[in-house]
Amino acid sequence: MSLPAQRSLWEATAIPAPALQGPLGGARETEVLIVGAGFAGLSTALELALRGVAVTVLEAGRVGEGASGRNGGQVLHGGRHALDELVLRFGWSAAQRLHRFAFGAVEAAFALIDRHQLRCDARRAGSIYAADTDEGVAQVREKLEALQRSGIAARWLDASALESAIGTRAYRGGYFNPNAGSVHPLSLVRELARAARDAGARIHEQTRALSMQRHGSSWRITTQDGRVDARRVLIATNGSAAPLVPALERSLLRVWSFQVATEPVPFAGEALAQGTTVSDTRRLLRYFRQDAQGRLLVGGKGTVRAPAGLPSFALQERTLRSLWPHHRETPLGYWWGGEVSVTLGRFPKLYSLGEDAWASVACNGKGVAWNLALGAVLADLLEGVSPEALPLPPPEPLRPLPLFPLRRYAAAAGALWLRTLDGLASVRSLS
After folding, report:
1. What are 144-171's pLDDT values in tens digits?
2. How far apart are CA 165 and CA 415, in angstroms?
3. Are 393 and 349 in contact (CB under 8 A)?
């Protein structure tokens, strides 16, 4: 019997999906329409509903079928860039707001989980950022200093401390950041849907938005069986917006991220056993953790196309076996993946689609904490707060990526180049 293309750990272990509205039929009106029932769309819908705003959410499939229900569940601060980099890009005032928001996103995310009692195996056990080359060690020390300047009590870990923490001798040094954690992502997005529904939001699954145009003073969004007129619109689809906004699809690069997981195993890594998450400095990122039941999860860059079965996950399996040789014979119980939207420069994007219509996309792999914290900010935007007053990158017009039709070839070539650079860095460290 052939193995399935994917066998998701999250689908196998998530809490039951909440009862929501079925496919939209007929004509409806609402104050705010949100397209996409992931972390961004649902956290925004929840906040708006709590404020008494009539909000409707359209989801093309089931809640959690996209990136929000497939990711690694690492709750990390939402900033990839140091403050001085943000100043160069956005100016001092906007950079300060964005930097403060990004570094406060973890606190806001766990506060939201606690406030609404969201059942999602939330564990706030910190994160480790590790390096296996001399070049990586220098990068880790630089990032550690930036965290400490931001007021986070991160601390250095040498190779011996890392071995005790994560049970592998693969790394030369790293830091521990206590301001991080993990969740069961599919349970979390289902719980967000339940909370938003209970607060008064209408969430229609199996309802694909097909077109969007101005209709008088409102926006009219048509679906396969109905339409919605809304005064304000938010597109929160992680870049998968065709045919609704074809230009949005062409503005982003979407790449596959894959994960594998074992069944529960005994493990010697003290920090992993407590729920600490780990990522490393490789250009082709590797990340891993152990879940609350003891399963070992490893993730990283996937293939250019959707997985065709277990062989598509060979890179993640090799990573697991190389980091922990004593698990060479441990069988995999799960393998799954999803697409991540990436922008040039790795900045999240807020696009203006016209009067009272916006798209918030592309967290570049930092989406859990960022999008949970983002709900209140996007709710402000949809209630009329000026974008310039919000802790977000300034809104931009949609622009297609250069040579967009060749994006898959570019992604494959880029991955090969990054893998080559990782290899050269390892060779230099050994010499």
Report:
1. 998 898 888 999 999 999 999 999 999 9
2. 30
3. yes
